[in-house]
Amino acid sequence: MADKKTSDEQAPEAGPEGTGGEQAVPPVMINAQYVKDLSFEAPTAPGIFSVMQQQQPDISININVDHDVLEGNVSEVVLEFEVRCTAGDDVAFILELQYAGVFTINVPDEHRIAMLMVECPRLLFPFARNILATVSREAGFPPLMLGPVDFVAMFQNHIQQQAPAAEGDAAAETES
Known about the structure:
Helix 2 crosses helix 3. Strand 3 and strand 4 form a beta hairpin. The chain is α+β, with helices and mostly antiparallel strands. A four-stranded antiparallel beta sheet has the order 1-4-3-2. The protein is 36% helix and 33% strand.
């Protein structure tokens, strides 16, 4: 038979200590998260509810990530959502949300932008998703249920869009 630990025995704690007995610093710490801006409009209510019974709504969603250095390794990351729901030619609702977090980023500089544009939004997203679903539901519409967002792909697209602009700026400087 295998030995079982009694409730009085405790397993050694696996603490966040480094090899020298120092506290290991987590790469990302969430200091705060909050709704920075929230706007909801249903310009054609109540008539839109009967239109939506007859026509499938069309929903367009734009998501953006922005960040700003506050102090040292502390930054604010803002997830921006712009949702537009239409049924036929009528606007059912417009929902805009800026959900933000203040993060302490403890990684080398070459990884900082990836943390701010990928990992931090990934941590904020479930909370923003819940707010969007709750607001749309409480406004009398079906809850807006967003699927997972690929923040890595968004970041890669951002880098690709930045590259031609940087090359154009470098070419303009060499011509001067």
